[in-house]
Specification:
mainly alpha
Amino acid sequence: MAAAASFPTSRLAAIDPFVTRFSAVALIGRLRRPSWRGAAWTFLFLLLLGLGLALSQIPRTPDVAELARVRTEAPSRVLSADGKELAAFRRVNRD
């Protein structure tokens, strides 16, 4: 017969098998020896998480037409070393 899992035993673990199965030591042991099924589930979870995050940002992004209409109000200024303005470049709407 196969030997029982080598999880740490304690009085609490004898009372509640959940503690033995999901204890920190048991989870770290599983991280050291991942199975293909566990790796596939992790990959699927991360893929769905990324897809969900990408889809959640769609309502927040502006339209292309809205980005084309954006005009900055502040002009670009060329200053001399002593702080005097030499030139100011403003965007001229030619639409």
